[in-house]
Amino acid sequence: MTLGTSRRDIMYGQAQSSVVDNALDEIRNVYPDVSHIFIFNQDGTIVAFNGDTSQELTQKVINAFQTFCEKASVVGGLDSLTITGTDHQMRFNRIDNYVLADVSSPDIDEKSLNALSRVLIPTIIRLSNKSQTNSNGSDGFPVDAKLEQTVPPEQLIEQDLVLPEIHKEKPTPIQNEPSKLFFPEPPANQLMVEDIHGFGKGFGNFKGLRTNPDVALIDRSLIDQWNELCGEKKIEEVIVEDTTNGKRARLRFKPIQDSKYEGKGVVQLSNKTQTELQTKKGTLILVRPIIDEHAQKVQSIAHINEPDEAIAEPEESLNPSQYLPDLEKAEYTVENLSGITVFRKDPPPFIVRIDVALIELWREKYGKNEISMVVVENPSQNQELTCNFKPLQDSNYMGKQIIQLSQKAQAALGVKKGDRVTIKPATK
Amino acid sequence: MVKKRTIMNETFGAVIDSTAQTESEESQDLDYLQTVLEEILTSDQISGYILRTSTKALVNMKCPDDFLEYAVLSSQAFETSTQLSGILELGEIEKILLEGKETNVLCIELGGKTLCIFMEKKMDPNSIFSKILPHAEQTKTFA
């Protein structure tokens, strides 16, 4: 209801108060049990009221309420007041700097009334304020002081100068963001430390030869779970952390080969890694996969939290040359080869027994059928001897850069036990 | 927390209702109501209450320091409500709920007696009212 150019219209703008008046009228249409509804501000000025409510009556109510509010300091100020009479109930609800007052039937649905007074009306007021602020600045309902602060013209000029720089930045395409935003955090699994005994196939008792100390062996089912969780993202490394001392290491990982450890909730770690983590077999540690773009972030965090030595950076790849001699020409110590070959009637080719790991590496490099013999060379006399070869059988010689030659072969080559010789594969 | 219980005679506004209740009946009624209030007061979230009859006021506040202010507030609540009821035709006042920023106050008209219960904000005033309600109905019927 509009009462010509009243005080409220001068203060808040006629169009604005009319909008809220209409909103209140509409609310009364929706809630016929509401007989009076009006809004006033803290100093008692009427902001809006519905059509059936006279301004005089409204002002009387406001005065009574204001008087009561003065006594309410003992309860920390008044948020709401509900008076239930036999015929009607009246509610006053404080909304920011305003008070919404309504009179309704005592039988009105409480939920509807709450929705009205605590949701709908505040929303209308705030929207109205915002709309008025946007269009006329200070002409709407009173706004917060911080919104009313004006920016000096010179600051506006500075802002204008700065803004174009900001706009020059190319915005990140939105479609790229969700994968980063919603990608699940890598799960951490608590696993029990188990010693690592080596891995690889076909090495019999020599499994330890190829054990990379910077590899963790993890249950295949767990790896599958990680892969399932991460979809196309690659998981190539894990962070293992002993939570008791906070030590962490970043390792490559492979599935557990030994079936007795599968499904037992263990992670197999090398002695080196266990030492770095200051942990041991039987300790529970956290294992967390590093997922693609998380990798850099996780590494950074780890470096912040821990000294450099806490992170055991993995080697680039499994490189046999780091623990095996040159494939082309390896130097070995001669050891006697005893056995039935001594009594063989056949002359050369002699047999040389060499490390099975070396044989394996040759095969990896040249293919299984390419290497038929090896050339043993006595570097001091430039003597060469082409021999058949077989793997070492005496475990005492394994992994010690030793080859076994028969005494006849030693004589032919001009060497004896303990001398150094080189060997290289003789390819077809 | 110090409990202070005071029974005082109203210095003004005393009305002797000779038409409905005898003194003994009023006393029985008051005893029953007091029992209910004592039970309510066992909750940690209830700060206290002020019960006014036509001749006296029963005050039971866990923290008596603010007693006077609470008494003024509760009295003003009924006065303002009566005033507003006259303006807006609310009818006879049954209940007033005042939600403060720190404390809620539930005021109930009990057939010539007025009861104000002070409670913490997290306390549901409706649960208190439902405990008092049977007594309120009984009092009304009796009156």
SSE inventory with pairings:
The complex is a heterodimer of chains A (428) and B (143).
Chain A lengths: L6 H6 L1 H17 L3 E8 L4 E4 L5 H15 L8 E8 L3 E7 L2 E7 L5 H27 L8 H4 L4 H16 L8 H6 L6 E7 L19 E4 L1 H11 L4 E8 L4 E9 L10 E4 L1 H7 L6 E8 L2 H12 L24 E7 L14 E4 L1 H11 L4 E8 L4 E9 L10 E4 L1 H7 L6 E8 L1
Parallel strand pairs in A: 6-10, 7-9, 12-16, 13-15
Antiparallel strand pairs in A: 1-2, 1-5, 3-4, 4-5, 6-11, 7-10, 8-9, 8-11, 12-17, 13-16, 14-15, 14-17
Chain B lengths: L3 E6 L13 H19 L4 E7 L3 E6 L5 H22 L4 E8 L2 E8 L2 E8 L4 H18 L1
Antiparallel strand pairs in B: 1-3, 2-3, 2-6, 4-5, 5-6
Question: Which key terms come to mind for this protein?
Answer:
heterodimer, A: 428 residues, alpha+beta, 6-stranded mixed β-barrel, 12 helices, 17 strands, disordered N terminus, B: 143 residues, 6-stranded antiparallel β-sheet, 3 helices, 6 strands, 41% helix, globular
Describe this structure in words.
The complex is a heterodimer of chains A (428) and B (143). Chain A has 428 residues and is an alpha+beta fold. Chain A has twelve helices and 17 strands. Chain A has helices spanning 7-12, 14-30, 55-69, 110-136, 145-148, 153-168, 177-182, 220-230, 271-277, 294-305, 356-366, 407-413, and strands spanning 34-41, 46-49, 78-85, 89-95, 98-104, 189-195, 215-218, 235-242, 247-255, 266-269, 284-291, 330-336, 351-354, 371-378, 383-391, 402-405, 420-427. In chain A, strand 14 and strand 15 form a beta hairpin. In chain B, 41% of the residues lie in helices and 30% in strands. Chain B has three helices and six strands; from the N terminus they run βαββαβββα. In chain B, a hairpin with a 2-residue loop joins strand 5 and strand 6 (113-120). Chain B is globular, with a radius of gyration of 15 Å. Classes of the chains: A alpha+beta (428), B alpha+beta (143). The A-B interface holds A 36, 57, 60-61, 64-65, 67-68, 71-90, 103 and B 66, 69-70, 72-73, 76-77, 80-81, 83-85, 87-105.
